[in-house]
Amino acid sequence: MMGNQPILLLKEDTERERGRDAQKNNIAAAKAVADAVRTTLGPKGMDKMLVDSLGDVVITNDGATILDEIDIEHPAAKMAVEMAESQDDECGDGTTTVVVLAGEFLKHAEDLIEQNVHPSVIAKGFRLASMKAREILEESKIELDIEDEEKLREIAMTAMTGKAIEGEKERLAELTVDAVRHVAEKEDGTYIVDIDNIKVEKKAGAGVDNTEMINGVLLDKERLHENMPSEVKDAKIALLNSALEIKETEIDAEIEITDPDQLEQFVNKEEESIREMVNKVKNAGANVLLCQKGIDDLAQHYLAKEGIFAIRRVKKSDMKKLAKATGGNIVTNLSDLEDADLGKAGYVREKMVGDSHMTFVEDAEKGKAVSLLLRGGTEHVVDELERAVHDALKVSAVAIEDGAILPGGGAIEIELSNRLKSYAGTIEGREQLAIEAFADALDIIPRTLAENAGIDGIDVLMELNTAHEKEQLKNQGIEIITGKVSDMLDAKVIEPLRVKTQAIESATEVANMILRIDDVVASKGGGDEGGAPPGGPGGMPGGGMPPGMGGM
Predict the structure, then answer these.
(1) Residues of the chain scoring pLDDT < 50
(2) What is the pTM of this model?
């Protein structure tokens, strides 16, 4: 105030929230996101039905899908969603775990804030705990070899457990592990797995047990002309990134034809140009043409006459996979096409799948790209199958890349919790309280796994603590099927190391970021001024669930 005149820093339509209120509302938003997905965790987790504005329905218990589908407006809640997306991109699994952990970290942090522990102190303690947890995870990891197919299948099955297609998880795990091992490439002594080299196509109309792996690439395309062969053995494949069409002139031009002979010459010249293009494909030795651009109707006719199987408008991503699988080169200029550029495959054939024709490029020479054809009775089933297979592919890939696994079923969280509580005693100052809170928060995973299966979470925690502390059985976790505490390696419940390290690091970072916010300034204008999204300034009072979460 200067001379009783108020100084206005912000526009009149701007709302501002400071201190404890801002922290409480942001924490409440993150906890609301965690509560929204918590019941989906584990093999006995429940499903969510998500209905969009058009009435389209998605039924899933996949955390990343749920958070992607619901319309969230609250800025702090959006941070939790971004964290889940990052976890999905990096590991393919653990999306629900990371959101639940972040919510629980913030819940325990809120209790410390009530005891007048400064948020910066809590954030420092959480950081120390996260670093120590990473060390413990590295010590606890179990080495894995790419040749250990059984362990890899167990990892894939763990990722798919609890999904709607669980009855077929053994066969699906076998297919996904085969696919990942096919595309794994060794570089400098370590394996690199690019799952983009695994093409996933889905077709409704048959049982999940009809799902198959193709050693090659599957294209949702049919041959261009009915006179083309429907099957080509010992295929020599030309991969072309230019059109087999007469090029349009780049400038406006008119051709004046004064007599019928000139017209005939003009048409013949065009026809000759097309025929020359087809001859170049034939002379290179190709009996299959896969073109990224268009193929003229006349060119289709000549290709059919030469017995060449042709497809047009193949996606760029598929062309790259085809090059990887067949050992061919993608040629931009048709004149440059030579025998050395051709890819090779045992068969190229057109088959009827469901109600449409698809092209199978099988027994590819290089085999560094494969395809999975997913089948299911309905669209909802194949969509959920696709999500489950994505998780299984990704976790198998990261397990091969890192060569390290951990016991699942809450075993590693209990071990971390106990070890961190001991570590907290070595730290001076109030950070010790934050490390203890971090350790307590980790109990949420085994407790939730038990509760979602209808088992008493407290009893399970007591049993697990006894096994880990007194009996020094580090691999003991909750086996949901029997409801008993047992060795997770014997129960075949295992997860890649990266899933756990990424989940703990991401949850800690997001929790710390939210804790350090003590001022929320939001414009309520038409959006020109920036600020928070419409619907509230990032957690302004109003009661009930934070804005944007009401759609659950």
Answers:
(1) 1, 526-552
(2) 0.78
